[in-house]
Amino acid sequence: MASKQNSSALSLVLSGIPTRKLTYTKLPVSYANPFVRRYYTFQHYQHISIGLTDGPGEFTQFYYNTFDGPRQDLASLYRAESTLTFESQEINGRDGILEKLISLPFTRVAHQVATLDAQRSTLNAQLPNEDTGILVMVTGALLVDEEQRTMNYSQVFQLLPNGEGSYFVLNDVFRLVFA
C-alpha cells in the first residue's frame, strides 16, 4: 500500500500542475541544479531524480505539488533559521513553519501558477559572484476544498546556499490578494 502511495505521489510531481506560460529571468543552471538534485527527490525514491533543467520554475512546481499533497514533505526545504510570513503572521524555524502549513484549515488545495519571476540574490555586495541566492516571486490562483471560485495569491521565496552545494528556503512570504 505504501508503495502505491509513493508511486502516485511521484507521478503527481512528474505530471505537473496546470500552468500558463511562465515568465522568469533565466539563471545560470549551475545555481539551480544543486538545489534541484538534492531536494527534488522523494524520501522513498532517493535515487530517482526528477529531470529538472529550470531551477526556479521546477522549484515552484515541486513546492506546490508537495504543498497540494503531503505538506510534511516540505520539511527538507526549510531550516531552523527559516522564516515564513503567512498573511502577516510571522513563523520562525522549520518546525513552526511545518506546523503552520500542516494545520491550515483545508484538506485539498490546487495551485495554478500565473507568473514566475526569479533573479540572483547576492548575500555580500563585496563578493557578488559568491554565496549567490535566488529570489523567486510567484503570482497565481488557488482552489481549496470544494470551493468554486479561485483565490489569487502572491508568494516570494528567498533560496540560499546551504553550504553543501544546494539551497534551502530562508524566507517565504505568502499573501492572498483580494481585488
Automatic annotation (TrEMBL):
Its main location: cytoplasm. This is Nuclear transport factor 2. Residues 55-176 form the NTF2 domain. It comes from Lasallia pustulata. One of its GO terms (cellular component) is nuclear envelope. The lineage of its organism: Eukaryota, Fungi, Dikarya, Ascomycota, Pezizomycotina. It is found in: Cytoplasm. One of its GO terms (biological process) is protein import into nucleus. InterPro entries: NTF2, NTF2-like_dom_sf, NTF2_dom, Nuclear_transport_factor_2_euk. The keyword Cytoplasm applies. Keywords: Cytoplasm.
